Inverse folding.
């Protein structure tokens, strides 16, 4: 079965809008500087058929984890909830009782597990205004419970914010737990580890295509850091560039037609562009310095990259139309790993601050510098979620390197891996299975 069909089958969802669905209203402005946590009542999931405690437990664990990482809600204690033991619907909700608990929103989830299949249903309510916000149904194989719950979360977030959630995506990363550097992927909440590239060699720098079907990576199979493309639907691996020297730190353009990467220049390393289908590369930086880590702006007109042309690694932005490059980081002696937000409004990067690396945000013009991670260890290799608000990074805060998720407001961080080795170089995919 093809990868695309597997994704579709994994979701296998029959989705129906139910009565009371509200459209066009934004309840939570996620881009507002006054963004806060909203009081959410989330009663225990209720059986809509024969009870299945194991399924109910797994549903609740995934939902609570997703709701926490979404970083938009304060989950109210259930002890004060009215209408105990019932699946709350628009036809039986007691709005004044729920409002009295302090709830601003109410999420009611029901399930039915029967014959290897799972049906999910949720209702979302505005407890302040006393009206339903929306509802949906899902049906799929019980084995696909996890992607169904993530889809539910994404739909719920869209109802409240007007923007799709990010839980129907994946995070690719490098793990050395086997003694080699191999590529895996994991859900944004840390569940469902899956191997992607295990070839008995060293693999680095994973990077997703805009459609989520391809993954760039650099591999040393031929004793040179060559650039390869892994095709997820078929598992096919294709050599894209094997020029002597590094063919690394590659990233697709937003339209998927070009690839920016680091290659050997005349003296140091430079940034090159090459067709995604393969072909001769074109050098776009011309410096005796070392230049690496290109990341595209969402409109494809600019590239941010790292250069040590002034003596230490700093972040620059190059306008591909004019050819002009501008330095945008001036605080700290070592700034690297830039990642351009999918909304275009921020560039995240890892910078050394007081002896340790931290994750920073800066505007593409170099203004409004913000430190968003603190605490022990180094924080490296930021990568953006599709929502342009969440960021994954690697940190050795607990000894070995694990992956953590934070937000542009500094939420969390939430650790999502805890493997036997080191998990590094995370790359967040676009939304999958749509």
């Amino acid at each position: 079965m093809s990868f695309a069909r597997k994704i579709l089958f994994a979701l296998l969802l029959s989705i129906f809008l139910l009565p009371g669905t509200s459209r066009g209203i934004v309840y939570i402005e996620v881009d507002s500087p006054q963004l806060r946590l909203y009081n959410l009542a989330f009663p225990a999931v209720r059986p809509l058929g024969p009870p299945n405690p194991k399924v109910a437990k797994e549903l609740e664990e995934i939902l609570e984890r997703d709701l926490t990482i979404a970083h938009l809600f304060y989950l109210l204690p259930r002890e004060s909830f009215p209408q105990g033991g019932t699946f709350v619907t628009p036809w039986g909700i007691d709005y004044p009782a729920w409002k009295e608990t302090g709830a601003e929103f109410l999420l009611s989830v029901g399930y039915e597990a029967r014959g290897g299949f799972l049906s999910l249903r949720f209702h979302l309510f505005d407890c302040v205004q006393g009206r339903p916000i929306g509802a949906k149904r899902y049906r799929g194989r019980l084995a696909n419970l996890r992607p169904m719950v993530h889809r539910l979360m994404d739909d719920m977030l869209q109802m409240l914010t007007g923007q799709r959630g990010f839980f129907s995506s994946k995070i690719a990363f490098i793990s050395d737990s086997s003694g080699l550097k191999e590529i895996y992927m994991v859900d944004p909440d840390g569940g469902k580890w899956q191997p992607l590239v295990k070839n008995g060699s060293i693999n680095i720098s994973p990077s997703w295509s805009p459609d989520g079907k391809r993954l760039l990576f650099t591999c040393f199979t031929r004793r040179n850091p060559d650039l390869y493309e892994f095709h997820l639907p078929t598992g096919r691996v294709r050599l894209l560039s094997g020029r002597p020297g590094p063919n690394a730190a590659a990233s697709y353009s937003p339209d998927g037609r070009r690839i920016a990467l680091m290659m050997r220049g005349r003296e140091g390393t430079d940034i090159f562009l090459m067709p995604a289908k393969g072909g001769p590369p074109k050098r776009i930086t011309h410096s005796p310095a070392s230049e690496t880590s290109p990341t595209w702006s969402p409109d494809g007109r600019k590239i941010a990259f790292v250069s040590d042309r002034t003596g230490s690694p700093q972040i620059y932005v190059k306008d591909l139309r004019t050819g002009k490059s501008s330095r945008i980081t001036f605080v700290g002696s070592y700034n690297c790993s830039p990642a351009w937000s999918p909304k275009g409004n921020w560039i995240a990067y890892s910078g050394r601050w007081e002896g340790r690396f931290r994750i920073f945000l800066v505007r593409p013009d170099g203004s409004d510098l913000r430190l968003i991670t603190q605490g022990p260890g180094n924080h490296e290799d930021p990568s953006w979620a599709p929502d342009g608000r969440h960021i994954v990074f690697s940190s050795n805060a607990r000894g070995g390197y694990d992956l953590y998720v934070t937000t542009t407001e500094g939420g969390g961080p939430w650790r999502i891996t805890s493997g036997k080795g080191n998990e590094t170089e995370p790359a967040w995919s676009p939304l999958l299975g749509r």
Observations:
- Helices lie at 3-11, 53-70, 95-100, 145-161.
